[in-house]
Write a structure and sequence with these properties.
- Helix content is 33%, strand content 26%.
- It is of the alpha/beta class and 409 residues long.
- The chain has an 8-stranded mixed sheet, sandwiched between helices. It has a 6-stranded antiparallel sheet with strand order 14-15-13-16-18-17.
- α1 links the parallel β1 and β2.
- α7 runs antiparallel to α8.
- The longest helix has 16 residues.
- It is globular and about 75 Å long.
- Bound molecules: adenosine-5'-diphosphate, aspartic acid (ASP) and magnesium ion.
Length: 409
């Protein structure tokens, strides 16, 4: 019997009616003869509420307790989904991450999956039960509940699809596929029939939250056929697949953005070997995800070091840098933060063979009067840091300039 993983995101299970709607989709696949593992997120808004409670109680919270709290939203939907399926006549049972178990490392709040023991699920499938699994959560080597980072149910879904040898992993969400950019930013955004793993990986890591980055990494590594489709309307969705399966060849496939970025500059850093390590070591230890890095030209033995990170990480970054200075590990004169920036990126595997893409991006932004603060590039993407107030304008202008509303090209 063929297996399917079906994942339902927060808006798809936002209330009891929507859980029933999702359960009917599961029933349809069961009736077609599939064994189904359903992965559920917390109801829309629930995880945000739980995170806010944690922060209110404890601004520099203990990550173990953060996970204990924020993992709970998924438990509710898993149980409700199993009950709804049972009411529809589908034999189903729910499991939390630790019960499977889905084993992770101990990086609370952003844990990585290490292994999934499928013995129990295989046994239950043999007994004719379909599985409902709480997404986003696992269990650490110490036996504590962990979470996989925001949006982590996508990663749970792909990991289960790989571990269970599923024929396909269907991600049901509130858009009917992966678009050239977030359809909330421009009506001209177009659904892509297919997108290469590599492009999807870049788009996700550069801010397109339709799939969690790690889920795409896993899908690519284990060759999981990943489909993104709507919970609310029927349609083919978008298939995330190998580059070779894609006919369309264009320089740029999509535009991504990250709204809540911050730029941190250390002015007057002693310019000597080891200084970058001395700065970024403490930041890494504090769990800060540093993104873009620029070291300015030094004068008189001193330099300025600029990096970007998430706005939420700024207080912890500042604390780590001040502590390192107090301990004498680094020396800098001034610390300047700009929390009003955003990152906009263009992505496309076609960039490997098309030249002038970055120049066209910069010219487009210049025409709109948008100043670029930091630039980074890779083989298939160009990212810029700009003032947040221009973010939407930049995305729309780039979408137009690269004619992304047109198919082919
Ligand atoms: P879920 O709760 O189902 O996991 P998410 O909110 O995490 O859903 O992801 C879906 C959202 O991703 C969409 O509502 C859309 O606004 C956003 N999004 C961002 N970039 C894109 C894109 N390129 N294509 C489709 N959706 C995108
Ligand atoms: N509920 C979690 C979150 O909001 C996981 C997910 O939805 O994928 O981040
Ligand atoms: Mg999501």
């Amino acid at each position: 019997m063929s297996r399917l993983v079906m994942k339902f995101g927060g808006t798809s299970v936002a209330d009891l009616g929507r859980i029933r709607n999702a359960a009917l989709k599961v029933k349809a696949e069961v009736d077609r003869g599939h064994e189904v593992a359903v992965i559920v997120s917390a109801m829309a808004g629930k995880t945000n509420e739980l995170v806010a409670w944690v922060r209110e109680v404890s601004p520099f919270y203990d990550a173990r307790e953060y996970d204990a709290v924020v993992s709970s939203g998924e438990n509710v939907t898993a149980g409700l989904m199993a009950l709804t399926l049972q009411e529809l006549g589908v034999p189903a049972r729910s499991w939390q991450g630790w019960q499977v178990p889905l084993r992770t490392n101990a990086a609370h709040g952003a844990a990585r999956i290490e292994a999934i023991d499928t013995t129990l699920l295989e046994q239950k499938f043999r007994q004719g039960l379909h599985a409902v699994i709480a997404g986003f959560q696992g269990v650490s080597p110490e036996g504590r509940i962990t979470t996989l980072g925001r949006g982590g149910s996508d990663t749970s879904a792909v990991a289960f699809a790989a571990a269970l040898g599923a024929e396909r992993c269907d991600i049901y969400t509130d858009v009917d596929g992966v678009y050239t950019t977030d359809p909330r930013i421009t009506k001209k955004a177009r659904r892509l029939e297919r997108i290469a793993y590599e492009e999807m990986l870049e788009l996700a890591s550069l801010g397109a939250k339709v799939l969690q980055t790690r889920s795409v990494e896993l899908a690519m590594r284990y060759k999981v056929r990943l489909r993104v489709l709507s919970s609310f309307e029927d349609g083919p969705g978008t298939l995330v697949c190998d580059e070779e399966e894609i006919m369309e060849s264009r320089a740029v496939s999509g535009v991504a953005f990250q709204r809540d970025e911050a730029k941190v500059t250390l002015i007057g850093v002693a310019d000597r070997p080891g200084v970058a390590a001395a700065i970024f070591g403490p930041l890494a230890e504090a769990g800060i995800n540093v993104d873009m890095i620029v070291q300015n030209i030094s004068e008189g033995g001193a330099t300025d070091m600029t990096f970007s990170c998430a706005v939420d990480d700024v207080p912890r970054a500042e604390r780590a840098l001040r502590t390192a200075r107090d301990l004498g590990a680094i020396d800098w004169r001034e610390l300047v933060t700009d929390t009003e920036v955003a990152k906009v990126s263009i992505v496309g595997i076609g960039m490997r063979s098309h030249s002038g893409v970055a120049a066209k991006m910069f010219a487009t932004l210049a025409r709109e009067g948008i100043n670029i603060k930091v630039i980074t590039t890779s083989e298939i993407k160009v990212s810029v840091l700009i003032d947040r107030k221009y973010m939407e304008l930049a995305v729309q202008a780039l979408h137009d300039a690269f004619e992304l509303e047109r198919a082919g090209g």
